[in-house]
């Protein structure tokens, strides 16, 4: 990222952060930073290109090492049961505003228009993989298959935690379907404890996945 004419890198990054954090419109950013609409668009895209460049991505978003994560090894709830788990993975919908002719492809299961971003996070809260750009109508499992076909490498014998929206396979461990799972379901009833082996598995799976 380089300084632009009369605009330093600090202001460029600030403009970008306000835009993405608040969902601010071009007009709002014009008023806040006292820049023209063309300048706002150009600066925003410059920062976006810099942050998504291979140099930045590869420096900060790295696949986890092939070792037992401390977040698993040091927790008796999880070790040794999840000792081969490397990270948690899920799809996350981010609001989008596509053109009218594309809205149908971007409409997600809740009826909103979005993009579906597949992200994996380690147990020390670091992103280790990100795949963006897919339309909101696309299922998480489709994103995962696309990621595996390209650059998501998972060592033999290791796996990621995922929710029931994914199919169980040798590199994904998912919860039992039809059994209480989400932590909010457990917390809704005071002092509720797992009463079966499947409930216990799902409870610990959800707890480990709650990065």
UniProtKB/TrEMBL annotation:
<feature type="domain" description="DDE Tnp4">
    <location>
        <begin position="89"/>
        <end position="210"/>
    </location>
</feature>
<dbReference type="Pfam" id="PF13359">
    <property type="entry name" value="DDE_Tnp_4"/>
</dbReference>
<dbReference type="Pfam" id="PF26138">
    <property type="entry name" value="DUF8040"/>
</dbReference>
<keyword id="KW-0539">Nucleus</keyword>
<keyword id="KW-0540">Nuclease</keyword>
<dbReference type="GO" id="GO:0004518">
    <property type="term" value="F:nuclease activity"/>
</dbReference>
<feature type="domain" description="DUF8040">
    <location>
        <begin position="1"/>
        <end position="52"/>
    </location>
</feature>
<dbReference type="InterPro" id="IPR058353">
    <property type="entry name" value="DUF8040"/>
</dbReference>
<protein>
    <submittedName>
        <fullName>Uncharacterized protein</fullName>
    </submittedName>
</protein>
<keyword id="KW-0378">Hydrolase</keyword>
<dbReference type="GO" id="GO:0005634">
    <property type="term" value="C:nucleus"/>
</dbReference>
<dbReference type="InterPro" id="IPR027806">
    <property type="entry name" value="HARBI1_dom"/>
</dbReference>
<dbReference type="InterPro" id="IPR045249">
    <property type="entry name" value="HARBI1-like"/>
</dbReference>
<dbReference type="GO" id="GO:0046872">
    <property type="term" value="F:metal ion binding"/>
</dbReference>
<dbReference type="GO" id="GO:0016787">
    <property type="term" value="F:hydrolase activity"/>
</dbReference>
<comment type="similarity">
    <text>Belongs to the HARBI1 family.</text>
</comment>
<keyword id="KW-0479">Metal-binding</keyword>
